[in-house]
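Appendix B. One record, verbatim.
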Amino acid sequence: MKKRFIALLLTAVLALSVLGGCGDEKKPAGNDNPTQGASAKQETTATKAPDKPGEVSTVVILYPGEETDSMANFINNQLNPRLADEIGIKLKFIYKGWDQYWEQKSILLAAKEPIDLYWDGLPDLSTMVNKQEAQPIGDLIKENCPDMLKVIPESQLAGGLVNGVQYGIPSAYAPSSCMFQLVCVRQDILEGVGMTEIKTADDLKKFASLAADKYPEMNGPADIIFKPLTRNFADEQYTWCAAGDSVVYGEETHKAYCYFETEAFKKVAQFNQSMYNDSLYRDELTTNYNERDSRMQQGTYLWVEGSLGKENEIIASVRSNDPNAKLKSYLLNPTADKYITACGGEVLCVPYSATNAAGAMKFLNWLYKNQENYLFCLYGPEGDNYTIENGRIVLKDPGFEGYFYEWMFRNANYTMFTSDVTEDFIKMYETWDDNAKTSDVIAFHFDNSNVREIETAINEVVNQRFTPIECGFVDFETSYPAALAELKAAGIDTYVAEVQRQLDEFFKVNGHQH
C-alpha cells in the first residue's frame, strides 16, 4: 500500500495479499544467470556474517506492521535461539505501521540506518534502485542461498533483475495470474440477498443495493476496487508498468497508454460515481482509502480488492467480529485472458546501509531450506499453535494468524493449507495458472531516471485531481477535462513516450511472450 494524498493509497503491489509466480518467461538480456548479479566490485558494501564457531551476528529487518507481544516472544524465545545455534545469527526487527511504512522506509534508508533486509512491492524495484535503496545481491545469493535456489527458480528470480543486475528477490512463488483483479466478497451476505456469484460490475452494484435494503446494519463496500473494475471494463487486459498507476501496457496491442486516458478508466470512474450517487459508497472509501483492508476485517463491509486466497488470509479477523461470516473471491470478466504479471508482487531487498547482508541471505536460505523451517517461521513450533493432520495445518485457536506474513514468503513447494480451507479451493488454487498467459512485461522494470521531475509533477496531478475522479467522489463530466489538461501540462505524453521507448528496447532483446 502506498499513500495517495487526500489520504489515499497508490496501490502497486500489495496489495496486501498478492501472490506470486513467474511461469517460464524468457530471461532478460545482460545476465545469463540471474543469481550472478553484479560483479564482486559492485557488492563491496555487503559484509559477511561471522563464520567463527559460537559467534552470533545480528540481522536487522525492517518490517511492516505493529509489533505484538506474541511475535516478540516467538522471535526472542523460539526463533532466535534456533537461528543462533544453526546458522549463527539472530534477528532484530524495526517495525513500522502500515500507515507509515513506505514513508519511514525511505527516511531510514536515506539516513543510512543499519538495516540488512526489507520488504516492498516488486513493481517499484527500479525506482528503489534509482533511489539507491537496494544494492546488487547476485553474488550474495550465489554464496549464501543454495537451498533457497532449489525452491525459487531462475524464472522467478529474473523478476528481480534491473538492467541485468539482481537487486531483489521476488519472494512469493505461487499461482499469480490476475493479480490485483479479484474482488473478495461477503459470500454469506451475497447468498442472503438471493445471489450466488459475482461476474460483472453490474453484479456488484446489484449486490450492494440488495444488501443495503436487507442488511441496513452493513456499511456497504470497503473498497472502490479500481483494478478489478478496470479488468471488467477494458477491451484488452492492461498491466501497470511504470511508477504509480499512471501508465498501463496493453497486452494485445503491445503499447503503453496513459491509464487516465483509456476508456476503461472513464468507465471505472463513472461506475464509482454511480455508486456514490446511489448512496452505496461512503465518503470514507475516498477520504480514508488506505484503511480498506482494516474496514473489511471489521465484519460490516461487503467487499475489498481480493487475490487468490485472500479470503483464507483474512477470514479469522472478519469472524472475530462476525462469527457467521463467509468470504469468497471472484474474478470480474472471468472469460477474459488471465496474465501472470510482476513475479509475485513482493520483493526482498538489501539496502546499501546493511552491515550484515550475508547474514540476511543466510536467514532467507534457512527459512527456505525445508518445509519444517518454513512452517516454523509462519506458525511456530509444531504442537504449540497447531498440529499437522492428513497434510493439513490444524490450528488450536482458529483466530491465530501466525507470526511472519505468509504472503511475504509464499512458496508453492511448501504451501500447506489449514484444515478449514475447502478441497474445491485447493483444486482451484493448484490449477489457477494452467491456462494463463505470461505478461510481456513480467520482467520489465521502468527506469524513471530521465523523467523524474515529470513523474513527480504527474503524481501530484494524479493525487490531487484524478484520485477523486477515479473513486467517483466528484462528477466525472465536469471534473475530467480540466484534470486531463493539467496532466498534459505536467508532461504525461513525454512520460508515456519514455515508457514506450524502453519497452521497445526491451522487446528487441526479449521479444513478446505471446
